[in-house]
Amino acid sequence: MSEAENNGDFIRWLGPDLSIKILSHLDDPCDLARVSAVSRAWHHFVVENGLSKQLCLKLFPELSFAANVIEADNMIEPTRFVPGNPMTWDCLKRNHNVYAFLARGLAPYVRQNCISEAVVASSTDNYPEESIQNTMEPRDRTEIRASYWSSKGESDPSVPETLIYKLISKICIVTEIYIQPFQAYFQHGNPIYSAKSVRFRMGYLKQPKELKSNRKAKRILQGKDFVWTYTSPEFPMAQENRLQIFKLPEPVFCVGGVLLVELLGRVQKQQMDQLYYICISHVGVVGRPLSSGFSAKMHHSGRCFLKHSPRKDSYFVTPVPYRSGEPPMWLPTENSPSRLRTLTYNMMQRAGRRLWGWP
Known about the structure:
Layout: H1 10-14, H2 16-23, H3 29-36, H4 40-48, H5 51-59, E1 68-71, E2 74-76, H6 88-105, E3 112-113, E4 115-121, E5 141-142, E6 145-146, E7 149-150, E8 161-167, E9 171-181, E10 195-205, H7 217-220, E11 226-231, E12 235-236, E13 244-255, E14 258-266, E15 268-270, E16 275-277, E17 279-289, E18 294-298, E19 304-308, E20 317-321, E21 328-332, H8 339-356
Parallel strand pairs: 1-19
Antiparallel strand pairs: 1-2, 3-17, 4-8, 5-6, 7-17, 8-14, 9-13, 9-17, 10-11, 10-12, 10-14, 15-16, 18-19, 20-21
Helix pairs in contact: 3-6, 3-8, 5-6
């Protein structure tokens, strides 16, 4: 029995309610992993009260509707504690691992451009010179050539256009979307072909097939092929040649990895043909993708299956002594992307042999 289980166990003396209140102030998954590795009693307390899930949902409330999770090929359905059910403790332990790894996988400080590929536009004026692929380039020109996407011309300014992008992960938390309208510096008057407003949808393909970028995709992918789990408010777009930031009202948990940009209304006629166009030079998505140790699969029912593959995580470790006279324990470095899993594994492995009678 450890020191914590004797006189230094504040969980024992303060009781469960006050202990939960204290531990709920932890905001780093690594700290909760350390708490659960102190002793058998502390590990049981953390697992039984679902503290890893509480921390994960505190960091990412968008995860509250996630249905099923897979860890290393075993399906896990998060369940509530049912007294007398012999399988409950196993479920709670597995849920504890899943939510702990997920909280670490969606690290709050990792924010980046989450677009991996431009898939298809609803129309393109001159393909491939003015294709959607050009919107992946942050500049509006490359060398001596303009870089932008252009819609086909329309006599009706209310005709919308759409752009579809594939995100770098099937699970991302998206906070902002950047769009820069294109200014035709080679035309008289330097017109800016912006839209009147913009709206965003996020979701996934109904059928389990891969999104591919090609010209034929616009004849294959239709609105009925997608399930949109999120639709943003409509944002006004300025007719200005600058990177415009559209901040979503709250972070969006994008399940499926597909972004649809709806460009609503046209404001600029082209002088030579008197038709309305929309031209965009760049689109970017700011968010947090899931780490490489996770993958997601969409089910036709709309449920998301999350799979954690520990071997895909990269470990950067440094040997440090745990206690005097004992073998060194391998701990990850501060910048390791898998610091929580490595720490939890080593501490639980060591504690398990001594305290819990694990083989």
